[in-house]
Amino acid sequence: MEENMDESQSQKGCKECCERCVGSLPWASLIATILLYMGVALFCGCGHEALSGTVTILQNYFEVIRAPGETLDVFTIIDILKYIIYGLAAGFFVFGVLLLVEGFFTTGAIRDLYGEFKITACGRCLTAFLMFLAYLFFLVWLGVTAFTSLPVFMYFNVWTMCQNTSLVEAANLCLDLRQFGAVTISEERKVCTGSEKFFKMCESNELDLTFHLFVCALAGAGAAVIAMVHFLMALAANWGYLKDASRMQKYEDIKSKEEQELHDIHSTRSKERLNAYT
């Protein structure tokens, strides 16, 4: 009998411990962090490989040559975009950790775990600052999503032409890089539908793979936008809670001071009556 009671108590203790652990997790911030990391990883990985595939297509089928020295050409721009991708990956990894930590420290179960909790001006300012950063990065990711849609649109047109070679061959269409700003006006780098290079490009894996990698990068940027919206909602809820908790804390402080003053007044009067009686 005693063993069964000990087992039931231990199971009850484990259950309470699990409930406390589950309740202490900031689920909104955790889901947003996971979504942000997935979106950033998808955008950075697929975007980097798609840019490398673009370099291969330009060199093999359009015969574009890298300019000597430090001349700003399409290959230099692609290298700059790769470095931007590296910075995005590192920066948003740190930003996601900061938002997740902020979510942990504004969760009710965590506050109960640490005992008496005091709302400080620093905590409210930190939440407001993170809200500003989240809104700023939300606008940044909107711009990144819009920018990523451009190569998706261009590659979709090329991919559609390759899928309908029998229809476009008679039209004698040409892909001229000068229309996309990839080369200067004086350079003529184009591939026409009836040429051998066009058929080789359509039959190669680089075009199909690069197109689908850009599509995945666009999906990753969209996931990052959704994650930033999720973070904004979580931070706004945390800010509202901290504001209400700060007011409640001030009310409790005023109430305790008034009770202390009343207690001191009663104590003083009791002493005066006792002195008058004696």
Quick summary of this structure?
With 278 residues, this protein is mainly α. It contains eight helices and two strands. The chain has helices spanning 2-23, 27-60, 74-105, 108-113, 121-163, 165-168, 196-203, 205-277; strands at residues 174-176, 190-192.
What shape does the CA trace take? rod-shaped
Strand order of the largest sheet: 1-2
Write down the Rg. Answer: 32 Å
Head-to-tail CA distance between termini: 65 Å
Write down how many β-strands occur, each being a DSSP E stretch of 2 or more residues.
Answer: 2
Helices, by number, come to: 8
Question: Can you write the helix and strand succession as a string?
Answer: HHHHHHEEHH
As a percent range, the share of helical residues equals over 70%
> In terms of structural class, how would the helical and strand content be classed?
mainly alpha
Reported for the largest beta sheet, the result is: 2 strands, antiparallel
pLDDT < 50 runs, ≥5 residues: 112-117
Q: Compute the average pLDDT.
A: 79
Oligomer description: single chain
* Portion in strands: under 5%
